[in-house]
Amino acid sequence: MTLAENSFAAKFSRFKKRVEGRLEQGFYAETRGYGLRRDLAEAWPAPKAKIPISVRPLEISDLSLLLPLEGNIPPEEQQQIRWRRHFHKKFPHRCFVAVDERNDRPCYMQWLVYADDNDALERFKCFPKLRKNEAILEQAYTIPSHRGLGIMSSAMAEIAEQAVQRNVRYVMTFVDTNGIASIKACQRAGFRMHLHQHRIQLGYGLIVRNNFLQFQEDDKPSDISKKLAA
User: Fold this and answer.
1) Angstrom distance (rounded) from CA 139 to CA 162
2) Contact 88, 95 (CB under 8 A)
3) Average pLDDT estimate for 56-66
């Protein structure tokens, strides 16, 4: 195959993946989520995982271990991997990993994104615009062999505190309303309910509308849903 043919094949492959990604989103989709927020000015004891872990920035060699492209991977897991690899392309220097200290291998990853990244964040059509003293902690992913060990809460708490070095006070994260286990993990890491997100997309993701409504102290999730629907 010539160089020109290789180039065309690569471009066609990328185009095909974009089309497939659009079709996966469907013509109409409506989702609801919670935005949880941690105030870094308030001390919060990081919960301990059931195994010894440490947190460090992602290294390129970690990607193949955390997000493999080959092997007997279930379709739902493949989708999770593709989405995070795409996120990594946009924010290659914002990812942290938790390492299993028993074998020095990464087992968890999550991105810490700042207001400087607002332009790139906007392309995802999922997040509010960040202020200078805000950051977003997103795309938490634990490899299947390490799930159920309390790694997410422990790692999240430690990764969030990295934002102090950038003079950030508030760190947010977004979770689907049905993700009860994830919501509880975020709360154990010091995050509290802050926003309700109502997202509508049309035309295979070409048109997206996000509505963010802030929780009041006495609000229940059902109250917020009624306000958004009004």
Assistant:
1) 16
2) yes
3) 97
CA distances from 27 to 106, 116, 123 (A): 37, 32, 19
Tell me the residue type at 47.
P
> Does the CA dihedral 112-117-120-122 come out positive or negative?
positive
Tell me the one-letter amino acid at 105: R
Question: Bigger pLDDT: 12 or 151?
Answer: 151
Tokens of 155: 């790692």
What's the fold here for domain 26-229?
A: Aminopeptidase (3.40.630)
- Report pLDDT digits (tens) over 185-214: 999 999 999 999 888 877 765 777 888 899
Residue 130 and residue 135: Cα distance in Å, rounded? 7
Rounded Cα distance between 183 and 175, Å, is: 7
Report the run of H or E that residue 110 belongs to, with start and end.
strand 105-114
At 19 the pLDDT is 47
